[in-house]
Amino acid sequence: MSSPFKKTLKIAIPLLLGIGLIYYQYSSFSSEQLKTIKSYFKNANYFYVLLSVLISLFGYWSRAYRWKYSLQHLGYQPKFYNSFFAVCISYLMNLTIPRSGEFTRAVILKKYENIAFDKGFGTIVAERVVDFLIFLLFVITAFVLQFNKLSDFIFSNISPNKILLLATIGFVSFCAFLLVWRWAKWPIILKIKSKFNGLIEGMTSVFKMKEKWKYLFHSFFIWFCYLMMFYVCIFSLEETATMSFDIVIMGFIFGSLAVGFTNGGIGAFPISIAKVLLLYGIAEDIGTALGWIIWTSQTLLTIILGLTSYLFLNIFNKN
């Protein structure tokens, strides 16, 4: 399979899935429900939407600022504006090819700050590990607070047999990978191992850096911004303004998971929000409207910041 065709598939499949989900959700509503959803958009309090966008900006800033600690530990002193622009562009790239933004960030700093790609990318992988652990705390909190509803939701959408099958496949694949990694002498494996050493150095920098507590503070602050960005948006609609915080956490968790299924969560994000809120007696059209308000505002922010950052990146580094 040719490389251009692979790239096309990486973009097209998640995008088509997202469009399919939008069509599925659109066709499942009656004309009366669609009119109601439009009215929610028309009557929403956009002060809270703008506040949500502002909070997101702090999250972008904090992510760029956190990055400097791991890079400084490796002996690099990147300019903050290059790190910030790289973060903004990476979010934009993730709207096209999921997870391509991580590579983009490392490439940008290689080009403009002469930071080795494998080490720069290693620090980004380390960030993802830390972010995953923090997200796991949200999931654990949700299970503790809403165990019955959450377990009912999972098992009503995924059968126990499928969960067992996926777990078995994952375990067997992991064992096969370990055997190949440990014993195989293929040139491609040896080359990957060589590159892997740079990644390991970048990843372990989190635990060895002098400023690790500041790094961890920003890590939690980033996720605090994510959560608050979601939380303040519920006040944009009267029908969701009285939601309890534990319901907000549930919506936030499933919305975060949905972002990984399609390009930037297109289609999947509003559906996941609507389905979760439906468990708590909030009508599906209300949940759908809230999901689209959050997704649209954050996607517009991502596009604007990404495009302007690409422009400024060249202007600021003109010399």
From TrEMBL:
Xref: InterPro entries: L-PG_synthase/AglD (IPR022791)
Any single Pfam family the record assigns to this protein: LPG_synthase_TM
Bilayer topology: Multi-pass membrane protein
Keywords: Cell membrane, Membrane, Transmembrane, Transmembrane helix
Listed transmembrane segments: 9-26, 46-62, 129-148, 163-184, 215-237, 243-261, 289-313
Main location: membrane
Protein name: YbhN family protein
NCBIfam families assigned to the protein according to its UniProt record, in alphabetical order: flippase-like domain (TIGR00374)
Protein localization: Cell membrane
